[in-house]
Amino acid sequence: MPAPRAYTVILAWLEDQLRSGAMKVGEKLPGERQLAEQFGISRASVREAVRVLDAMGLVRSATGSGPSAGAVLISEPSTALAWALRMHMATRALPIGDIVQARLLLETQAALESASRPCSPERRNTLAEASRLLDEMDAPEMPAERFHSSDAQFHLLLTSLAGNVVVETMMASLRQATIGYVQETVSGLEEWPEVSCTLQGQHRAILQAVQDRRGQDAAQALREHITWFYGLSDHH
């Protein structure tokens, strides 16, 4: 078994710092020289650690000098997960069919969970935002790319009603990971106006079921909607 890379000591240290509360999101990592001396590793290894943390969505680096320079702790898990999913989809290790099935499981379960959540101003605002998005998407001149972006936001808003940030993060990652696939599917459709009209009818039915707290109906409508859309690629 190969020895761990030198930079992993910084990853382990940062995990401990975050777990204990010694460091928090928004704070800056110690400087490159300080970390190299503290852990007895090269500055190149420190830079490698920062690049890995950046790819993981845990730091954002600013070059230059002065108070704004350095690596600041952030937390953007969906971005990192989406990149990993997309790369492994490209290798065919993660089949698109399994990605779609995972999305089905998450969204339908979220629909069931959200039906039993108490009414709150946040819920009303989220539903109002979802309705506003659908109104915008009704515009026949809306480009397919923008339609898809709003479509993704609509689904994420409904998923958020379940109140589970892990499910939200995973859903956001799955949506980002399948952007290329969806755009390829849409670009090959000569009958896009008819397809978008059908999608909007499905969206309206889903939203109505969610608003009425009919969890089973919402879950079934979501299943039919997602399956129908991804089935389009089988005919093109």
UniProtKB/TrEMBL annotation:
InterPro entries: GntR_C, TF_FadR/GntR_C, Tscrpt_reg_HTH_GntR, WH-like_DNA-bd_sf, WH_DNA-bd_sf. It comes from the Bacteria. Residues 4-72 form the HTH gntR-type domain. It holds the Pfam family GntR. Keywords: DNA-binding, Transcription, Transcription regulation. This is FCD domain-containing protein.
